[in-house]
Amino acid sequence: MAYTSKTLPLPLCPSGCNPPPAPARSVPAESGSKAAHSGETGEGANVKSDCFDRGELRFNEPMSAHVSWRAGGCAERCYIPTNLPDLAHYLASNSGLVHFVGLGSNLLVRDGGLSGTVILLHGALNHIKLAAEGLIYAEAGVSSPKVSSFAARHDLEGAEFLSGIPGTVGGALAMNAGCYGSETWQRVEKVLTINRQGELHERLPHEYEIGYRHVVLSVRSEPASTPHSSLLTPHPEEWFVAAWLRLQPGAGAASKQKIKGWLAKRMATQPLTQPNAGSVFRNPPGDHAARLIEACGLKGLTMGGAQVSEKHANFIVNLGQASASDIETLINTVQATVKEKQGVELVTEVRIVGKA
Asked: Under CATH, which number does the domain 8-120 receive?
């Protein structure tokens, strides 16, 4: 497939200066402490730069505060960028494993914690605007429901379904999130990504293999003569930071009414008052995970502080004191039971990461 992405220069800071060079020395930081970002290398916070040292770096950060299940272990480090230039500088100045997290509404961090640096995008990459007629530009940290309401306010239709996705634009892009018969990538005109070196790329939909809860960059990273298990390389070190969404002219009042109706339906059928991560399992072809789970008599099944919701069988809720282990054990039990009784192997929609 032809490689049609466009590499962009590192973004400037809001005051217009160029990205500063990587700092030369580091200052050790104590466990559990916080520091303004200055190119932290894994041993501490580096010398500051006036333009780019505005992000916040945390150590041993409880991820239960950043995932919707309200359970799980700590991240070794957690970085909260102030904007896209700051994020680009952080990635370019630091090595090591990184994990991008939005609202954490599709994520479980095991109780043993997560190595590397978690980068929190919600509240950081939160810019949304009309880029052109019928075209919305939204950064990865913008919540999906916010895109839905923004479109309705500007008399654009086609984004109403995003009101039912409890995550961010970045997460919706990464998994092709969808509901009510629509999926995120049906609205994507192009995306903006960032790599481990802090370089930005504009990419088009045809550069990805896109399916149900599935998005993979269709670019070979090796020469054609190099043996490879698949023509599709996942590229785990390139992340979505923004998208341009193409919508149709519509009536804002009608869109708002549709959103209101769908939210009422969600409230009536989903356990939105309890900590949860939305749908735990993907729907198998021609069926629904919730139907299979309920047919096995698993509604209400409880392990520790985790329970298969009595309101919606494809939701697992935290009753108040659930550990990540409780939730994962319940997930595994549901999978094993459905496989035994229904002959169907349920695939998780949520991501489970970290050390047990």
From this structure: 3.30.43.10
